[in-house]
Amino acid sequence: MSTVQLPIERLVLERPPHLHSGLSPDHLSRALLMATALPVAAGLVLFGKAAAVVLFFAVLGACLGEGIVFFIAPKGTRRDMGHAVLIGVLLGLTLPVTITWHLPFLGGLVALCVGKGLLGGFGNYVWHPALVGRAMLQLLFGARLTPAWWPVLARDNLWSGSIRSLADTAPYRGYQWSRLPAWADAWALERPIDHLVGCYGAPLRDGGVSGTGWLEMFRDHLPPLRDTLWGTVGGGIGETCTIALVLSGLYLMYRGLLRWQSVAAALLTVAVLAAVLPIRLDGDLAWLPLFIAEGQFPAGVAWILFHLTGGSLLLSCLILSADPLTTPLTARGHVVFGIGVGVLTMAARYIGLTPGSSYWAILAMNTLVPLIDRRTRRRW
Amino acid sequence: MRLLRSKRLSGGVFFTATKVATIDVPIETLFTRDVLRVPLHARHNLSNSPDRSPETEMELLAGAGDRIEAGDPLAQPPSGAPAWARVFAPVSGIIGNRVTAGTARGAAAAVELMPSGDQADISPSRTGSAEPSPNGLIDQLAALGIGIDADRCATDTQSAAGRPEWIIVDGLESAPYATARTRTLIEHSGDLIDAARRLGGALGVSEVQFVVDRALGALVNTLRRHALGSRDDGGGQTRETTVTVVPIPNQHPQCHPRMLFRTVTGRELPPDRTPREAGAWIIGTCELLDIHRALVDGLPPVAQTLTVAGDAVQRLGNYRVPVGMSVEAILLRVGLCRDPARVVIGNALTGVAIRSADTIITPDVEGIYVASASAERDQTPGGCLRCGFCIDVCPVKIDPVGVFNAVELGHPSRVPSWVARACLHCGLCDYVCPARLPLMRAVRHCRAHAGGGQYA
């Protein structure tokens, strides 16, 4: 028989509940960081060492920013390097691989100092800090964040090649079937969404009409859709690889950080708007592009799919809108948030407001989160 | 749209992993040679019945120093007093003095009982009045100290006179670590189906709902087989009563009477009404087994089946202990492998952390949870992360963090009173909160502020 006596004087006598799930803010940051692992890996494979440099300096800037904020902030402020690393990585994922190292460093610094520190620190900021950093970079160095040509390493040089030796061959037959010149390591590609919207999707803005036909564009100027799945198209470090992003999103949903309602609302809105809004075809406006087909090729469906996977939309609505602090509380709120992101993204693409449209859409919807919460919360 | 909406519990948490250690261990009977302090107001529910004050003096049927056999009546209510149940001796022994013993619900009157000799089993040596009484089964049960109440633990035989519309047997227990009811169900499935059928027949209920955990497929099949068999060979008035096995998902707090009522009957229950008032009698399987023993063998209930679990406990399992045994005696028998830091009587999530190991087991105790210091979490609240987990998990669809913010800002009166009344105090909002905010305390505060009634 046991002889253990109860240490009566040391018993905890708190009110219930007596159990806790053990979740903490660190768990949330860590889960988000885990979710960025796949896009980061995809970026490293597709863009090589240059992506590692961008990510490293973004994280370094973010950590330095956190240190500065911690140094200035009142006593008792928690220093949370895990969160700083997360913000740095997220910022790096949105950036093109071609920028020089000081831009991501500056972006990380701004993200943490302004986006997080000045706006009240963890738990109080309104806008996603990584996107605040990116927005600042875009305002200061706009052209460098949206280069005309985006490099992607060719099949034999994945992971190890250099993005400096670029080859541009037209017509481009897709990643798998095009032959790269022997002297080059990487393809110079266009971002599919930029090309697409620049040619056909901007009835409200001037110019931008290309001479190519609707079918020729899909055949000669856009990569096949499977390239957007694997990410071998132009775009930011973490934007292109659809498979990695979807797996990360599923992981975040499993961890309860991302609501499917938000993702579904955003993607559906974009798909519906792309299917309905007019495109400029042969000089006049054609409504319902979904039903435009060229022979056997369902060009309208391809148009919608490129809208979904060809830009920054997936990174925005699968990873960036999983940040709990800058998104609404309830599932209903997330639906509104997702619809807002979709509408603003498509508006920015059609009006030609700015490159990186979905990042700006997220920032705008972040601003509206208190309003959304007020209207969508439960009766109490 | 309203019709499409399922009445199943949305939200909640599955605590399946905490039950693994005890669900396969057979129920073991614990004896003690220490003095029992048998509570005299057994099977009552103080928080729900302010009119039945515990000060009512019970009449002892034997004096100090007398010998009493297990199963003999020990005390009975004075004539004219509200209908308390008779109290029976859990073991054979010598009666001692009247004392005041600590229970999970506060101090209560008890009488000492010194066990004599070796106890072979906690089964009374002689039976009570087993012959059918003219007033039917309820009186027959009441004579043996069993009252049936919707809240599972009261013995209000007066209000039991009303006919129920539903009888729901609760074989679920969604609370963390608790497996006593499921174990009872596994070991006595045939008896329990039989008792449910008898009870339904006596009360004129044509269909008894027998709720079990959907995940226990083998158990569901066994119960269905028994239910079919009992319908075939039933006799007399009980033939019309069928027992329907209802397998449902077992997330906490599905076993709460309000949630069970909603899921099984498909009706919404206003916060002011109890399931009993709405016509549903909800009976746990442990109580149903007591009923079976009383009806078939004429034995009064004198022991309680409870789950002893937690990371400080050496032999986790379900134990059948005599009423009146102290927590310390139980823990000495099951053994402790670590220094306990928190001893909780009842539900591991929302039970009562006891001050003294002297606390005795009353008939409403379902479990003991003993946690060591290593299981203690840092409960320093941080800032809200806006994750919305508390809103997702809430089984009654209130907004705990909204209530918390209102209380923090000093406006508890702005919280509608139905919010505080609807809260089940299941504690899941606190359980899932990553920032460790005291959300449930905020809701309690609103309840107190609104004068919505007393709370435990």
Verbal overview:
The complex is a heterodimer of chains A (380) and B (456). Chain A has 380 residues and is mainly alpha-helical. Helices cover 54% and strands 4% of the residues of chain A. Chain A is globular. Chain A starts with 24 loop residues before the first helix and ends with a helix. In chain A, 48% of the residues are buried. Chain B starts with 15 loop residues before the first helix and ends in a 7-residue tail after the last helix. In chain B, the strands form four sheets. Chain B has a six-stranded mixed sheet, with helices on both faces. A four-stranded antiparallel sheet of chain B has the order 2-8-7-4, with no helix packed on it. Chains A and B meet through helix 1 of A and helix 8, strand 15, strand 16, helix 9 and helix 10 of B.
Q: What's the helix count of chain B?
A: 13
Summarize the amount of helix of chain B as a percent range: 25-40%
Distance between the termini of chain A: 54 Å
Task: Compute the number of helices of chain A.
Answer: 15
Entry summary:
The complex is a heterodimer of chains A (380) and B (456). By secondary structure, chain A is mostly helical. Chain A has helices at 25-47, 49-72, 81-94, 102-118, 129-140, 142-145, 192-199, 214-221, 225-230, 242-254, 260-276, 299-309, 313-318, 331-351, 357-376, and strands at residues 150-153, 166-167, 186-189, 279-281, 284-286.
Q: What is the fold's blueprint, element by element?
A:
The complex is a heterodimer of chains A (380) and B (456).
Chain A: H1 25-47, H2 49-72, H3 81-94, H4 102-118, H5 129-140, H6 142-145, E1 150-153, E2 166-167, E3 186-189, H7 192-199, H8 214-221, H9 225-230, H10 242-254, H11 260-276, E4 279-281, E5 284-286, H12 299-309, H13 313-318, H14 331-351, H15 357-376
Parallel strand pairs in A: 2-3
Antiparallel strand pairs in A: 1-3, 4-5
Chain B: H1 16-23, E1 28-29, E2 36-39, E3 59-60, E4 67-68, E5 73-76, E6 87-88, E7 93-103, E8 106-115, H2 137-143, E9 166-170, H3 180-187, H4 189-203, E10 207-213, H5 217-232, E11 242-248, H6 257-265, E12 280-284, H7 285-297, E13 303-309, E14 317-322, H8 327-334, E15 340-345, E16 352-353, E17 367-372, H9 389-393, H10 400-408, H11 417-422, H12 428-432, H13 439-449
Helix pairs in contact in B: 4-5, 4-7, 10-13
